[in-house]
Amino acid sequence: MSTIDSSPPPAAGQRGPLEHDVRDQIVTAAEAHFSRFGYGKTTVADLAKAIGFSKAYIYKFFDSKQAIGQAICVQCLDKVLAAGEAGIADGRTASEKLRRFFNGIVATSAELFFQDKLLYDIAAHSAEERWPSALAYLERSEALLKEIILLGRETGEFERKTPIDEVCEAILLVMQSFMNPLMLRHNLDDLPDAPTKAINLVLRSLAP
Amino acid sequence: MSTIDSSPPPAAGQRGPLEHDVRDQIVTAAEAHFSRFGYGKTTVADLAKAIGFSKAYIYKFFDSKQAIGQAICVQCLDKVLAAGEAGIADGRTASEKLRRFFNGIVATSAELFFQDKLLYDIAAHSAEERWPSALAYLERSEALLKEIILLGRETGEFERKTPIDEVCEAILLVMQSFMNPLMLRHNLDDLPDAPTKAINLVLRSLAP
User: Fold this and answer.
1) Is B126 in the A-facing interface, judged by CB distances under 8 Å?
2) Where DNA binds (residue ranges) (chains A, B) (predicted)?
3) pLDDT digits over B15-49, tens only?
C-alpha cells in the first residue's frame, strides 16, 4: 500500500466549505450593493471596492458580474418554485394543484421581485437576456405543470385529446403574463384577480 | 330677420377644414420628429422649432405633447382595429372570426409598433400611462370580442355557462401578452406560433 494518497489532505478538505462561505459572502454583499445602486449600473470593480476584496479575488469565485447576478437569481427562483411546489402538495385534485401551483408562483414572484427594486432589476436582466438560471426555472415549471396535467388526465379531470406538450406550452404562454417579471410588472395592479381569471380560463380549456 | 347671423361667415367656414389641415401637418411633422429623436425625449419646444411653428401656435391645436402623441396613437390603433375587424368579416364561423380577429390585431401591432421604433415608443407611453386612446382601443376590442362570443353562443359553437363578461375579460387577459405593446415586445421572436397556441387554448376553453 502506498502512503501517497490521491485524496486531498485534511487542510485542503476545508476548501470546498471555505469557498462556499466566500461565495456566499460575495453574493450577500453584491445583493446589498446592487440594491443600493442597481444591477445594471454596477461593475465588478465597483463591487470589489465596496466589499473590500480585489477584483481578481472576486473573479476567482465568479466568472463575471452576470454569474453573481445568476447566483442571486437562482436563490429567488428557488423560493418561487418552492412556493409552487407547496401549492401542488396542498391541492387535493389536479385542478386544485394547478390553481395553487400558479397562485404560489405569482404571489411569491410579486413579493420577491417587486417589494425590492433590486431583485426586479436582476430578474429583468435574467429574463431579457435568457440567463441559464431563468431557462432552468422555466424548464422546471414546465416539468411540474406536466406532472399536474398527467395526473388530471389519469383521474379523468382533464381532457386527453390535445397533445400534452401543446397543452403545457399553451398554459405557460397564458401564465407568462404573471410569471415573467418583465410582464408581471405591468399586471401588479390586477393581482390576484387577473391570474385567477386566467387560471379559470385554463381550467375550462382542460375540461374533458 | 336680422342680417347679423350667428353662423360663421363664408371665409370662417374654412376654419374647420383649415384647422384640420394644420393639425394633420403638426401630427405628420411630429411623427417624423419623434421617429428621429424619440417621443420621450422630445419637448413641445423642440417640436415647434423643428416644424417652424411657434410653441404658442402648436398649443392652439394641441393641449400638450401627449395630445399630439395620442393623435398619432389613435391613427395606429385604428389600423390595428381595422385589421381585427377585417378578420371578423373574413371568418365564417365564430371560432374562425375569433382566430382571425386576434391574428389581425397581433400581426398589425407587430408591424406598426416594432418595424418603427418611434411608434413603439409612443405606444409604450400610451399603454404605460393608460392614455384615453389606449383605453378606448381596449374597450372597442372587448366590444368586438363580446360580439364574437355572443354569436358563438347563438350558433352553439361556444359554451353558455360562464358569465359572458368573465369570458371576455379572461380572453383579453390571455391575449394581452400579444396585444399590449409593452408585453408583445417580449414575444416578438415567438410570432406567429405563440399567439396561435394561445388562441387554440382559448377556443378549447370555449367548447360547449
Assistant:
1) no
2) 43-62
3) 456 778 889 889 988 888 888 888 888 899 988 98
CATH number for the region A14-62 comes to 1.10.10.60
How is domain B74-205 classified at the CATH fold level? Tetracycline Repressor; domain 2 (1.10.357)
Domains B16-62 and B74-205 share a fold: no
- Rounded average pLDDT over B129-155: 95
Backbone angles phi, psi at A155, to 5 degrees: -80, -5
For chain A, which residues make up each domain, given as ranges? 14-62, 72-206
Contact A155, A93 (CB under 8 A): yes
Smallest CA-to-CA distance from A173 within B196, B104, B87 is with B196
Share of chain B above pLDDT 70, in %: 91
Q: Do B204 and A162 touch (CB under 8 A)?
A: yes
A196 and chain B: CB distance < 8 Å anywhere? no
**Which of B158-165's residues contact partners 24+ apart within 8 Å by CB, and which partners?**
B158/B94, B158/B206, B158/B207, B158/B208, B159/A204, B159/B206, B159/B207, B159/B208, B160/B208, B162/A204
Q: How far is A193 from chain B (nearest CA, A)?
A: 10
CATH fold of B16-62 reads Arc Repressor Mutant, subunit A (1.10.10)
Which of A127, A174, A183 is nearest residue B201 as measured by Cβ atoms? A174
- B191, B110 Cβ separation under 8 angstroms: yes
CATH architecture of A72-206: Orthogonal Bundle (1.10)
Per-residue pLDDT of chain A (208 residues; tens, 9 = 90+): 444 444 344 343 444 567 788 898 899 888 888 888 888 888 999 889 888 889 999 999 999 999 999 999 898 899 999 999 999 999 999 999 999 999 999 999 999 888 767 788 888 888 888 899 899 999 999 999 999 999 999 999 999 999 999 999 999 999 999 999 899 988 899 999 999 999 999 999 999 9
